[in-house]
Design brief:
Blueprint (H helix, E strand, L loop, with lengths): L1 E5 L2 E5 L7 E5 L3 E5 L1 H62 L5
Antiparallel strand pairs: 1-2, 3-4
Length: 101
């Protein structure tokens, strides 16, 4: 066993016993935090926050990809519109003025 000290406290820590951590809280009171409190904090507070941040990053990445796709699609539509106008002009010229043989 190893003895750990803190102001006004001595802890005995072994692999079998619960690890006690002391934090000073205003007014001279101490709060003992054992492994179950730390596990509870991680599972109820930190994990949901981490998942929310991960999902925000994932959504932003998807939005960036969609924006790039829509921009390239807009360029393709513009190019197709120009080609259709040229075809329209060629067809009108041939219908109104058929080639002479």
């Amino acid at each position: 066993m190893t003895g750990l000290t803190a102001p006004g406290r001595v802890w005995d820590v072994s692999p079998v016993q619960t690890l006690a951590v002391s934090h000073h809280i205003g007014g001279g009171d101490y709060m003992d935090m054992d492994i179950s409190v730390i596990t509870n904090l991680i599972s109820n507070q930190l994990f949901p926050i981490a998942i929310c941040l991960l999902l925000m990053w994932y959504i932003k990445g998807n939005q960036d990809k969609e924006r790039e796709t829509l921009e390239s699609l807009g360029k393709v539509v513009q190019e197709n519109t120009m080609v259709m106008r040229e075809l329209q002009t060629v067809v009108k010229e041939h219908l109104c003025n058929p080639p002479q043989k």
